[in-house]
Design a protein that fits this description.
Distance between the termini: 43 Å
CATH architecture: 3-Layer(aba) Sandwich
Radius of gyration: 18 Å
Structural class: alpha/beta
Low-confidence stretches: none
Oligomer: single chain
CATH topology: Rossmann fold
Strand order of the largest sheet: 1-2-3-5-4-6-7-8-9
CATH class: Alpha Beta
Order of helices and strands: HHEEEEHEHEHEHHHHEHEH
Number of domains: 1
Length: 301
């Protein structure tokens, strides 16, 4: 069943989100503070049974100098390739060295970043929410930008960012914070249009926020969230972007995806999967992104 507005209404929907006046200066200063710390990229070769790909265990200094980890997979013996930086879903992790081989097999350098502290956990939506400077996603989004810096330091000039759900929301944030990305693929992006999401979604993870508001008798979380809303980042983004949405998604309301899509400042396309849920087209949508990225990055490099 549909979980939100009908398709005609979704195309007309516009978010009521209002970006704070100091949104840009807050993020400019946050990234400047992070970049004042040496990136200190390390890439250690990993012995795997894979015959066509090389794998490296990468780490670099993220927010506050904390070590952030990622897998880098590349076609065997190749370097300086266009890169795809991928962020994972809520409570997930980077998996094993021999998982998720699609992008490297397609000819890209593929950096799969692990979101700090999230292996199998929850409760991150409210962590540090009392103040924008302490909010959990300030660190996460900064780490994500530093991941782009890291893959460039390893030799990739052209970089795209991708993700599903939380990963899609992180990719949107990076698109708004890094001005010269080559492309963006955001499947069912989480962390967008918070007020709308909390009004219409009754499932986790958004219910972490509604429960926090109810338990603490406070609704003053929105000033903090306004600095981390994907709609705000979308309005700053200029790289070509491919969005996708499943109209039966009961985790990320489709209207919140459209809210970010309509605010996106760069060239954009939306794949609507009427009978998909949170997978937002899944492998069929991945085919669209692979074809687009092949034309955009590989053929032009």
């Amino acid at each position: 069943m549909l979980t939100d507005l009908g398709l005609d209404e979704l195309w007309e929907y516009r978010s009521s989100y209002a970006r704070p006046d100091d949104f840009d200066s807050f993020w400019d200063s946050t990234l400047a503070e992070a970049r004042a710390i040496d990136l200190d990229v390390e890439a250690v070769p990993v012995d795997t049974p894979l015959k066509t790909l090389d794998v490296y265990d990468v780490s670099f200094a993220g927010f506050g100098g904390d070590r952030i980890h990622a897998w880098l997979r590349t076609p065997q013996g190749q370097s300086g390739l266009p890169a795809v930086v991928q962020y994972h879903g809520y409570g997930g992790n980077r998996g094993s060295a021999v998982e998720n081989l699609t992008w490297a097999s397609a000819g890209f350098a593929h950096l799969q970043v692990e979101v700090r502290e999230q292996r199998g956990g929850g409760g991150f939506l409210t962590r540090g929410i009392a103040d924008r400077s302490t909010y959990f996603y300030r660190r996460v989004f900064t780490d994500a930008v530093r991941a782009v810096d890291a893959v460039r330091a390893l030799g990739s000039a052209d970089v795209a960012v991708i993700g599903n759900s939380q990963g899609g929301g992180i990719a949107l944030a990076v698109a708004g914070l890094v001005s010269d990305l080559a492309a963006v693929h955001s499947q069912a992006p989480f962390l967008c249009d918070f007020r709308r999401a909390l009004n219409v979604c009754g499932n986790p993870p958004y219910t972490e926020l509604t429960k926090y508001i109810a338990d603490n008798r406070r609704s003053d979380v929105f000033p903090t969230l306004s600095y981390f809303d994907g709609v705000g980042f979308a309005a700053r983004a200029t790289a070509p972007a491919w969005f996708s949405v499943g109209l039966m998604d009961d985790i990320v309301p489709p209207s919140t995806v459209f809210g970010a899509y309509h605010a996106y400042a760069g060239p954009r396309e939306m794949a609507v999967w009427e009978h998909s849920a949170h997978e937002a087209g899944g492998s069929d949508d991945l085919d669209i992104a692979l074809d687009a990225f092949r034309t955009r990055l590989l053929e032009l490099s």
